[in-house]
Amino acid sequence: MILDFVLLVVGILFVLAAAELFTNGIEALGHRLNVSKNFTGSVLAAVGTALPETLIPIIAIVFFAGNKGHDIGVGAILGAPFMLSTVAFPLIGLTVIIGHLLKKRGIALHAETTGLRRDLTFFLFAYSVALFIVPFEGYTLRVITAIFLIGLYVLYVFQTLKGESEDMETPEHLFFAPKNPHPHIFLIITQVIISLILMVGGAHFFVHGIEKISLALGLDPLIFSLIIAPIATELPEKINSIKWILEKKDTLAVGNVAGAMVFQSTIPVSIGVLFTEWNITGLALVSGIFAIISAFIALTVSYINRKYFAYGFTSGILFFVAYIYLVLTNGAG
Known about the structure:
The structure is a single chain. The protein is mostly helical. It has one domain (about 1-170, about 180-330): Up-down Bundle (A middle domain of Talin 1), CATH 1.20.1420.30. It contains 13 helices and no strands. It has helices spanning about 1-30, 35-65, 65-100, 115-130, 140-160, 185-215, 220-235, 235-245, 250-265, 265-275, 280-300, 310-315, 315-330. The longest helix is centred in the first third of the chain and has 36 residues, at about 65-100. The two termini are about 30 Å apart. The model has no long low-confidence stretch (mean pLDDT about 85).
């Protein structure tokens, strides 16, 4: 048990260190490529942090034959948007609220609303298509839908690149080149890649520690697979966004989560649609519905005064709590 706790702590430390390296590297990369804050947060940061956990369903579906591998893959695909909308968004809101109470920042969330609304609109449309249209039709339409979702993400990247947004400020310094105000792009990319490797390693230690502790405490492995593991796999987005909120870089923080939601609802979903039966029922469907409702609330609040943004984001935690209750009382559904 002691070793498991040590692994858990080591995992968290790895992820925290990796988040510091990653956010610093991504800011430098965005500035070096001369792209906007919105593109840096919603595409560069979002895809970077989403890629590690995206490998989980791909490996499960492609390399583990039979329904078990497919079930794990589909669960991982659906778990990502759910955790992002019901845990990562609320953490942003709570960080803002707590920062305001401690007089460290204002209650208004100064994220660029145009980019936020675009991200959430793309997510709501793509995820709704995957959940409510695909399961009821034949394989031909599923192939068309998968291609459509991939094309939708390409369109999203293009619109984000061309959309109006503030320019990235020059970061203080690159950790891998602290004395060089203009580091080479190869050095920047190297730092980003190393930070992602550290994130994967840290998340692995974290999941392993939590798994062993949960089993030692007699917790049902199903609870672990549905709730605890997805929290860990989405840890990079959560830590990165909290860090950016504390630094008052709200557009990067919100874009990191919202952009990851768009990516997770298109690219991994298209893989699930193509290579599994994609029969979404029971608690799996509930998680998708909760993710959509939570994202819709965030989108609605984005049209109201900025002072209410944090509260709207935080409301998503209610759906996470409700889902835990359903899992505990109904099992796998």
